[in-house]
Amino acid sequence: MTTPTRTSNRPKRGEGQWALGYREPLNPNERMKKDSDGLEVRQRIIDIYSKTGFDGIDPGDLRGRMRWMGLYTQRAQGIPGGKTAVLEPEELEDKYFMMRARIDGGQLTSDALRVIGGISTDFGRDVADVTDRQNVQYHWIRIEDVPEIWRRLESVGLSTMEACGDVPRVMLGCPLAGILEDEVLDATDVIAETVEKYVGNPEFSNLPRKWKTSMSGCVDHCTEPEIDDVSFVGVVNEAGEAGYDLWVGGGLSTNPMFAQRVGVFVRPDQVTEVWAACTSVFRDYGYRRQRNRARIKFLMADWGPEKFRQVLQDEYLHAALPDGPAPAPAKHDQRDHVGVSRQKDGLNAVGFALRTGRITGSLLTTIAKLADEYGQGRIRTTTQQKLVILDVPDEKVEALVAALAEHDLQVRPSAFRRGTMACTGLEFCKLAIVETKQHAQDLYAELEKRLPDFDVPIGINVNGCPNSCARFQTADIGFKGSMVKDDTGEMVEGFQVHLGGHLGVEATFGRKFRGHKVTKAETADYCERVLRGFLDRRTPGESFAHYVSRAEEDWLL
């Protein structure tokens, strides 16, 4: 039986691409941006909302344009995860904000970290999160305090500008850029140049959706370029010249895709221009009609890298880029820079694990003091919710390791502590279905007790919803928050399980098994069972991800 073809005389609306003339009809987000540029909300916050308080904020600003200044309303306390998809935004939100301070390249001074810590202590109930995109997030922020917070951040060269919204988000860089001997090249300057020229620039303040960038010459690919919208990956061409390989179209959420190589070689002095051209392609050709298709990964999936390169060169650069080689595979599977690393100047970088990124402002202030006492006041954030203190002399390394350990900041953590990440979760996030931060901490602590001799790197990523802020699809064990029936038939917090995700050579997203789910109470038992099976059946030197790829299904349930 053949289904008859339907025809219509109505004009097709296309995908809402500006370059093809599709400006109408607008979805609510596009209408909001058309009514007022998101960057304009800054002055209204200073002049109006900080004086009127929460109840005086225009709804279009409150649930839309304030993101351009790094502000989201946070989840009201006590609303269970089962209500997330049922209640309206105004029913879920509290009269407080999450605020995100962007830290491009993860680069901080001790003075900057003291300011960051002080803001948390003074205005955010002493709560802070170091994110997996090198930022710091606050909670419990009142709109009345925002101008003073901005003043303090700007006094040390930081801001919340475009930390959220349909804009160029924080630009990721290797935390040890310019530090390690074996890097391909140092991307510090190209990140700084691009940020200076384009962050806060109206040219790119209305993109179809978020735009995530990484620029790095790290041999470990620590910025995870495989899953960024646009990445500049350090490479050496046939002539021995160091530059960048251009990757476009990575992203996770509900439709995960890996970035594709465009196949060009970008010299360091071309990076900012090429980044702006790529961003322009996204702005003009990105899909705006449906918000769930408004990421560059969907355009790349339809176009392919050849067409993207053609449009990039012909319409935006007006010049051809040379072909370029692929970069070498990541040198190490672990990309977090935890531990003691020798700097090229003979000093040491000391990287340490927090508690799934959660920390206090008071402790951030203490870390700033330690960076001055044992180093030269330079600190870095990583893409794995970790921190690094630079410039530590050999004779001070062990004293610093001990001083950090006094605050449960581990330079030599267990495999479980090192490899566990968690998103914000139900505690503060309006999209979340389950609590994540404390549960992830409880989980790694329990696994340390049950499997004290576990000797293989293992990534366990705990995510509160399908949006993958904690990258559950690329973890060895990824937990995606959902409501699950327990043994009594009651709906409780739980997770869908994804196993064997990994980046690098033969990158793959985690396997799902018939929608296999576990309750929150079962996660430690489940991890123990699967990991003991791995220890019993692994071959010499085998990684957990490789084991999962060959495992029989009943080994993993």
Automatic annotation (TrEMBL):
Its cofactor is [4Fe-4S] cluster. Pfam families: NIR_SIR (PF01077), NIR_SIR_ferr (PF03460). The keyword Ribosomal protein does not apply. One of its GO terms (molecular function) is sulfite reductase (ferredoxin) activity. Residues 1-37 are annotated as: Disordered. InterPro entries: NIR_SIR_4Fe-4S, NiRdtase/SiRdtase_haem-b_fer, Nit/Sulf_reduc_fer-like_dom_sf, NO2/SO3_Rdtase_4Fe4S_dom, NO2/SO3_Rdtase_4Fe4S_sf, NO2/SO3_Rdtase_FeS/sirohaem_BS. Residues 165-317, 417-542 form the Nitrite/sulphite reductase 4Fe-4S domain. Residues 93-155, 342-406 form the Nitrite/Sulfite reductase ferredoxin-like domain. Catalyzes the reduction of sulfite to sulfide, a step in the biosynthesis of sulfur-containing amino acids and cofactors. Belongs to the nitrite and sulfite reductase 4Fe-4S domain family. This is assimilatory sulfite reductase (ferredoxin). It comes from Blastococcus goldschmidtiae.
